[in-house]
Design brief:
The protein is built from 8 helices and 11 strands.
């Protein structure tokens, strides 16, 4: 969606009633952001609306991009919001081999998530961990417990917004809508997962609003 450099179009002020509705929609879509909504969009602040290519709307505050929305799709946070409040979003993880593809704007495919370095929500499917030697057992169990807590929870459905983290990296590298549910990803282990996400270094990330 944002592979090329972006030149924002006309900017307009968001009406107060619309701004209240946006705040409500954000907290409904991302409940864990609710305690931080006054920090992200203070009640007396003034949001700007900018038109981007491909029928995308960007909401910004004081020249800082906050959220974007493609037509009637869910409102999605800019990666800077994700990095500021990483705990507030459901997440999946790609393996090291998939990182360069994601950061070049390629479609995210299932194998990057179902390999040993990938992670998906635990859901109701039992994932058997690889066998380890006796000397590695305690350490592996502790590490696996931490991973389970980070990615635990219900399976995600097609159309839900998800943050994509990367093996060995601290910050998320992508956010977008799932084109298939995570249960199906685990079962089929192939196919398109996200085809139009916002990723580190893309046109939206590089765009300046000053």
């Amino acid at each position: 969606m944002f592979k090329k450099d972006i030149s924002p179009g006309a900017k307009s002020k968001v009406k107060s009633s619309v701004q209240r509705a946006i705040r409500t929609k954000i907290t409904e879509t991302y409940p864990l952001l609710a305690p931080h909504i006054d920090e992200i969009i203070p009640k007396k602040s003034q949001l700007d609306l900018l038109k981007l290519p491909d029928r995308v709307t960007l909401y910004a505050l004081d020249s800082s991009p906050l959220f974007f929305q493609h037509m009637d799709d869910p409102i999605i946070p800019h990666l800077r919001i994700v990095h500021q409040f990483p705990h507030a979003f459901r997440r999946i993880r790609i393996d090291r081999g998939a990182i360069r593809f994601v950061l070049s704007g390629a479609t995210l495919m299932a194998p990057g998530l179902t390999s040993a370095g990938g992670r998906l929500p635990s859901g109701s499917i039992s994932e058997k961990a690889p066998e380890s030697t006796a000397g590695e057992s305690a350490r592996n169990e502790e590490e696996q417990e931490d991973e389970d807590k980070r990615y635990e929870g219900r399976d995600l459905e097609e159309g839900e917004v998800v943050v994509v983290e990367a093996e060995g990296k601290e910050e998320a590298c992508m956010i977008g809508q799932l084109r298939v549910g995570t249960r199906e990803i685990k079962e089929k282990k192939k196919g398109v997962v996200i085809d139009s996400g916002h990723y580190l270094g893309d046109g939206l990330w590089r765009m300046e609003l000053d």
